[in-house]
Amino acid sequence: MKSIRIGTRNSALALWQAREVARHLQNNNYLTEIVPIVSSGDKNLTQPLYSLGITGVFTRDLDVALLNDEIDIAVHSLKDVPTQLPEKLELIAYLERDYPQDVLIRKEESRNKEFHELKLATSSLRRRAFWLKYYPDATFSDIRGNIQTRLQKLEEGDFDATILSLAGIKRMKMSIDYEMLPLMISAPSQGVITVAGHSDKKEINEIVSQINHKKTQICVEMERNFLRTLEGGCTAPIGAYAELIENQIRFKAALCSLDGKNCISLDENFVYNETENFGEKFAKVVLENGGKELMAEIKNKL
Q: Which of UniProt's keywords are assigned here (predicted)?
């Protein structure tokens, strides 16, 4: 069989992720070739994501390349992937989740400030809303770009700190100080690399499915079903994190208003079985307890 063409965004982190998928496939004795593609999300670094008006802003160009047979598979950060995939495309493998957490990175001169005093740079509606829940007087600046760009903007900009995904920092082996943020619930499927494929390419999909991490798949599908049922797309302030230990799952999730004043939270422990759609079940609990009105309010304001 000829080498498997792996499509990826061309940022340093995305290329690392593609190489990680290639490594897993090579360990199974398959040849690979990495094909970098510039995404629309990387071209527009000025507007916050939620204002671009498209879901899958970081995945769309790779979707097109898959549909046009320019690549065989596409590698994504799973939290960038919309819950509704284009026709003929499917997720065929998930690598083991490493670091799901959000972390705080401060400027040197803001080291001694209390959390409530920090001016934060983040364009994420989830991070803003969850922060406002605890620190209602906080002020924010928009910030976009890859990790290196954001850290540079942090040094140059008029703010004290930013919030980043720990996975990116660890994967890039960056030696920077960070603080854990227990107050944050991660974005659904944060910290997971996924592989998308074309449903007609049965042989390649079968090969790639061999590198799937089942435990991670169970957790992220639950988180994504929760998100899909709330109709959150990639922008509403929704956090969801499932952790599977033996056959027990702990599922933490929350939907917050944009100003953080109204949050509907869940923290459930239960025995997993594969017949029940737990993500959908818990999302319906949220919707029935004020979530429906809250989602309508959020959509109205965006």
A: Porphyrin biosynthesis, Transferase
DSSP 78: G
Q: Active-site residue numbers?
A: 80
Q: What totals of helices (H) and strands (E) does the chain contain, helices first?
A: 10, 13
* 204-211: long-range contacts, CB 8 A cutoff, minimum separation 24: 204/4, 204/72, 204/73, 205/90, 205/92, 207/4, 207/25, 207/28, 207/30, 208/4, 208/25, 208/73, 208/92, 208/93, 209/92, 209/93, 210/28, 210/93, 211/21, 211/24, 211/25, 211/28, 211/93, 211/95
Domain at 228-301, CATH class: alpha beta
Question: Contact at 8 Å (CB) between 257 and 237?
Answer: yes
Domain extents in the chain:
4-95+192-212, 102-180, 228-301
pLDDT in tens, 255-286: 999 999 999 999 999 999 999 999 999 999 99
CATH topology assigned to domain 4-95+192-212: D-Maltodextrin-Binding Protein; domain 2 (3.40.190)
Per-residue model confidence as pLDDT tens digits over 142-187: 988 888 889 899 989 899 999 999 999 999 999 999 999 999 999 9
Cα–Cα separations (whole angstroms), residue 175 to 50, 147, 171, 192: 30, 13, 11, 21
4-95+192-212 with 228-301: one CATH topology?
Answer: no
For the chain, what is the radius of gyration of the CA atoms? 19
> How buried is 61 (Cβ within 10 angstroms: 0-12 exposed, 13-18 middle, 19+ buried)?
buried
Q: Which residue has the tokens 């759609």?
A: 277
What is the CATH code of the structural domain delimited by 102-180? 3.40.190.10
CA distance linking residue 302 with residue 297, whole number of Å:
9
